[in-house]
Structures are given as structure tokens and as C-alpha cells.
Design a protein that fits this description.
It is built from three helices and 21 strands. By secondary structure, the chain is an alpha+beta fold.
Length: 330
């Protein structure tokens, strides 16, 4: 009996402590407990993500020739008009080609004149054939000169449209290949925001939802846009699966926006208007049931409630409380 008595006493003490703790949490914190008033208002559920500005229709300006860059006439950030010179390729090799073509043309003209002179007014078959070949050679020489002169024109890489230089891909004295990108351009008045939506959040988003964002460069300005082009295909990076999407917007006046600027984005997925609200910290969940501690006339009592949407630390009360009730914050 003596060895069972300490165990019994310990069990009784533990039970008493449990009862005291339960009583304290349910009834015993009294007037010192922090409380919040059930209020009526609106609640917005949002998804937080990040994004980056991008040009809607970027333009990569390519070189049409192989050669060596002689002059780079623009820098990143420059505004240009259609037809402005962006880059000049060294034209010396192409000038040489023009001079060679001009000599060939002169030779072809002389050969034709000689063939016609030798043929006279009554040429035989061989003389007629010689004149024909000379004429064909002259025509080919004209075409070769035209090609050489066209190459000279292509040593100037021109802006295809109005825009802003985003990036210069080459430098003076650097080699450049046919088809290589010399300059990237964009219309900075036509930007969109590229965002990534976590796979957990994708079921809650649809096109046309409202999105707001703040650029790191302008944290004090909130820009409003619309979610579009939510991709049906996921992309995985670093073990995280996301779905690309786009936010379209109209840039506020006075902001100098650039592709590549980073932003913090909020996508509004649901709105509840004129609903009862309490802090989420007032809830106590037991299984699938939700309780709050209500304070009336200085006394506390537990009450089961039904909740709805939650966001930003606030919870919608669907039933169980009235506007003006006070609940304990845990």
C-alpha cells in the first residue's frame, strides 16, 4: 500500500493542475484578459507573390553582316527614333568589295563594246554568241555591284521603330556575326508584370482578378492591374513548383519604369462585404469545431461559432456572434 500511495497522490495532483488550467483558460483570466469587439466590415483574401517588369513586345535588333564593330552610337536608357543609327560595322572590307565590283563592271562594259565593234553590222553566229555572253556578263557585274553597295548600307544597324535602348550587346572593335543581336529595345510605355503563382494558390486564381503591386524602386506607390494569362503549364525551380502569369496595368504618370524592376504583388482572390469580423487570435479550435471566449458583464463564457473567410489576421464570423460582442484574444 505504501508504494501505491505516492503514485495516487501524484495522479491527483496532475488532475487538479489540469482542471485549474482548463478553468483558467475558459473562465479565469477575468478583467485582465485582452479583448476585441466584434465589428462589421469588409474582408479581402489575397495571395502574396513577387514579380518583375518586362516589355510586352521587346525588339532584338540583329546584325545582317559578319564584321567588326566600329562605332556603338547608343547606350542603355537612350530614346531612339525609327531609322536612328545604333551600331556601325567597319565598312572597309565592304568598300573594297564595291571597288572590285566597279572594276568588274568597267571590264564587262569594255568587253561588250569590243564584242559589238568586232561583230559589226552583219555578225556571224560566233560573233552574236560573243556579244550575248558579254551582255550577260555586264548584267551580272551590275548585280554584283548592287549587292556590294547593299552590303555597305547594312554596315549601319538602324532602329526599326521608336523606343528605348534596354541593353547593348556589343562594343567597339568586337567581332559581330550575321544574325547576332546587337541591341535590345523596348517601348517603356508598354510594360507588363511577370509573376509566379505557387501551385498551392493556383486553384484560387482566375484571369481578370485584381492585382496590386509595389515596385522596389517606388515602394510608396501602389499600382493596380489585372491578372491575365495564367499558364496551364507549371515550371519547377529549386524544388518549388509555380505557374507563370501576367499582370497588365497602366503605368502612373511620373514613374520611370524599366524592364527588370522587381515588385511585391498582392492578388485579390475573394471579397466579403458587410460581414462580422474578429481577430484570428480569438479562435480556439477543437477538432473541426471553433470556439471563442465571450465576455459579458465581466464574465467569460465559451461559445461555438461558424467562421468563413480569413485574411490578414481577421476572420469572418458566419454565425454565433453579434456585432458589438467582446471576445478574448489569446
Amino acid at each position: 500500500m505504501s508504494r501505491r500511495r505516492p503514485a495516487l497522490v501524484a495522479a491527483i495532483i496532475i488532475a487538479l493542475i489540469a482542471v485549474v488550467l482548463v478553468a483558467y483558460f475558459m473562465f479565469g483570466r477575468g478583467s485582465n484578459a485582452r479583448t476585441a469587439t466584434v465589428t462589421r466590415g469588409s474582408l479581402e483574401a489575397t495571395i502574396e507573390t513577387v514579380g518583375q517588369l518586362q516589355a510586352k513586345n521587346p525588339i532584338a535588333v540583329h546584325s545582317s553582316l559578319n564584321g567588326t564593330v566600329q562605332i556603338v552610337a547608343v547606350s542603355a536608357g537612350d530614346s531612339v527614333k525609327a531609322g536612328d543609327v545604333l551600331v556601325q560595322i567597319d565598312r572597309a572590307p565592304y568598300d573594297d568589295a564595291v571597288q572590285a565590283a566597279q572594276k568588274e563592271l568597267a571590264n564587262a562594259e569594255s568587253a561588250l563594246n569590243l564584242a559589238q565593234l568586232q561583230a559589226g553590222g552583219n555578225p556571224n553566229d560566233e560573233q552574236r554568241a560573243t556579244v550575248l555572253r558579254a551582255a550577260q556578263n555586264l548584267d551580272a557585274a551590275h548585280q554584283e555591284l548592287q549587292r556590294a553597295e547593299d552590303q555597305i548600307a547594312k554596315t549601319l544597324i538602324l532602329a526599326p521603330s521608336d523606343g528605348t535602348i534596354v541593353d547593348v550587346k556589343t562594343a567597339p572593335n568586337a567581332p559581330i556575326g550575321q544574325g547576332s543581336v546587337a541591341v535590345d529595345m523596348a517601348n517603356l510605355n508598354d510594360l507588363s508584370l511577370s509573376v509566379e503563382i505557387d501551385e498551392i494558390d493556383v486553384p484560387h486564381v482566375t484571369n481578370s482578378m485584381t492585382a496590386t503591386f509595389r515596385l522596389d524602386a517606388y515602394p510608396g506607390t501602389e499600382i493596380k492591374g489585372t491578372l491575365t494569362n495564367v499558364s496551364p503549364i507549371a515550371q519547377t525551380s529549386g524544388g518549388t513548383t509555380t505557374f507563370p502569369a501576367t499582370v497588365t496595368f497602366t503605368a502612373p504618370e511620373g514613374l520611370l519604369l524599366r524592364p527588370g524592376m522587381n515588385a511585391n504583388v498582392s492578388i485579390q482572390t475573394a471579397v466579403r462585404s458587410d460581414v462580422l469580423l474578429i481577430p484570428q487570435s480569438a479562435l480556439r479550435t477543437v477538432g473541426k469545431r471553433t470556439f471563442v471566449t465571450v465576455v459579458r458583464d465581466g464574465k467569460q463564457s465559451e461559445k461555438e461559432i461558424q467562421v468563413g473567410l480569413s485574411s490578414g489576421g481577421q476572420v469572418e464570423v458566419a454565425s454565433g456572434l453579434n456585432e458589438g460582442d467582446r471576445v478574448v484574444i489569446h
